[in-house]
Amino acid sequence: MNPTNTILLTGLPRAGTTLCCHILNTYPNVLALHEPLTPSDFDPTLGRNAAVSQISRFAQQSRVSAWVDGVVVSRQKDGKVPENPVAQVAGRDGLRPIDVSMGQIDVRHQLQDEHFTLVIKHNALFTALLPELNNTLPVYGIVRNPLAVLASWNQVDLPVNQGHIPAGEMFDPALKSQLAQIGDRLQRQLHILEWFCRQYADHLAGRILRYEDFVINPHSVGNLLQLSSSFPISHGQRSSRNTGYDLAQMEVFYQNLRGFGDALPYFYPPAQLDELMDNIRGSM
Question: Which among 183, 192, 134 has a CA at the least distance from the CA of 14?
Answer without folding.
Answer: 192
